[in-house]
Amino acid sequence: MPKCHALGCFYAVAISGAENAVQNREAGVRNLVNTYIAPIQAAADAFLWLVYPDGCMICKEASGPFLCDRCADDLLVPFPALVCSTCGHPRQVLPCRRCQMSPPAYVATRAASPLAGELAQVIHHFKYHDRPQLALPLGRLLARHALGIRHSLGDLSFDRVTCVPMLRSRERARGYNQADRLARVTAAELRLSYAPDLLKRAKRTRPQVGLHREQRQSNIEGAFVATGKPSVTGLRILVIDDVSTTGATLDACAVALREAGAAAVYGLALAAGG
Predict the structure, then answer these.
(1) Could you tell me the CA-to-CA distances from 127 to 172, 179, 241 in Å, in that order?
(2) Could you tell me the residue ranges of all domains in the chain?
(3) Model pTM?
């Protein structure tokens, strides 16, 4: 075959391949992310967000990310002026009678917003519809809120930030632990040290959704233990979760950390209620 003809064939094949690559760029990039970059969780989320956004799920802006900045800023609903200084729930007595009668193991917990409206929709997609990239805008939102209420969260003076752990089997089935993804971004935004493995699940529990307060406390009691890797002795720790309904899960995490020697434990959630 003449060299010029062979070179022409090569160019034709290359151009055709380039056109196919352009047409299939989104699928190709997502496959690349899933195959090679997935272990670097934060980088993968940011990559998906910036390069091939899906369009905002709220305002439907096709050229923007799955949750645009404008809509993210409007997600949080303010709590009433009076909230319990310990559990953070709306109360008329501070601290509330429940916390006075049965003090939790944490010093204080706070949530950024009630679980309602569009925030509830966004969190549902984050947890159940394979949208790990939502960790980026939601984590930034939670960090900004934490800075605004830092006086209620020990002035954000923490040695470590960790997350509520998920059973490995559930994490494998979902593909990620949404509390871990959220906590990673929040800790980075607050410039705090993140340690995802301070806690682990000690037993399988029923999903907390649909259980009343007493059932939740009984279900989650003893569900977590400190791993000891690293030691938490004498440390001030912030535990992050996506949703806190009664505070039972954060309290169980605090119990495990305090038993392991932590000096103080605080809790932070994106939403409260549900």
Answers:
(1) 13, 9, 12
(2) 82-272
(3) 0.78
